[in-house]
Amino acid sequence: MRALIVDDELHAREELASLLEETGAFAVAGKCGNAVEAIQALRKERPDVLFLDIQMPAISGFELLSMVDDADLPAVVFVTAHDEFAIRAFEASALDYLLKPVAKERLARTVERLQRGPASGGRPGLPRTPIRRIPCLAGRSIKLVDVAEVDLVRSSEAGVYVVLAKGELYTDLTLKVLEERAGLVRCHKQFLVNLDNVDEIDLEEGQAVVRTRSGKEVPVSRRFLPKLRDHFHI
Questions:
Q1: 61-75 pLDDT per residue, tens
Q2: What CATH homologous superfamily does 2-116 map to?
Q3: Does 119 have pLDDT greater than 80?
Q4: Which residues contact 146 (CB under 8 A, 6 or more apart)?
Q5: Contact 151, 195 (CB under 8 A)
C-alpha cells in the first residue's frame, strides 16, 4: 500500500515512516509538513492511505479533509497524541486512530484493517465541514484568506485563483470544493462569486455580468443565470 504521512513535526514523520516500512505492507509515497503540501501530494501521488496528524498549525487535520475532493481522498488513519479526538475521528470516516507514540503491535492491527478494507464495501463520504479560510500561496508563505474577503474565484489552465479587492492569490483547492464547502456560488463553468460582495448585475439577452463592490466583473453563463436571479429575486 502506498502511504502519505502528514504531520507538522519532522521527527514524527520520520519515525512513522520507519515504522510503516518495517511492516513490509507500505511504501511511503510522501511526507508532508502542512496541509497545503498534503493537498498537492494527494492529487499527485494518489496514495492508498493517509496517515494524518490532527493538531497542526494554521490548518488542522479535520480542516484538511474538508478541503480535499472526495475522489482524491484515500483511507484515513489519524495519528495524534490526543485521545479526546477519537470519536470525532471516526465520525469523519477515519479507518483507524493511532495514538503517539505509535506502538508496533497497534500498527499491526491497523494494517489488518486496511487489508480487509471497509466492511460496507466502500468508504463513507466525509462530513461537509464549512471552509471559513482558504489557504493560498503568497510567495513562500501560506496565507489564510477569510471567505468574507473573497470577491470571486476563477480557474484557468494555470490553476485556481482567489480574487480579492486588491489582487489575487493561487490556491490548490478546487472550484468544486469551494462551491460546496465555502458558500461561494457558481455563476460560470470557470467562476465562483461571493454573493455578499456583489454590487450590481447587468442583464443582457439572457446573459449577465456581475460587478463586485471593488469593481471586479464576473461573467454569468446562461446555465447559471436562473440560480442567480432566484437568489436576488429578479
A1: 989 999 998 888 899
A2: Response regulator (3.40.50.2300)
A3: no
A4: 132, 133
A5: no
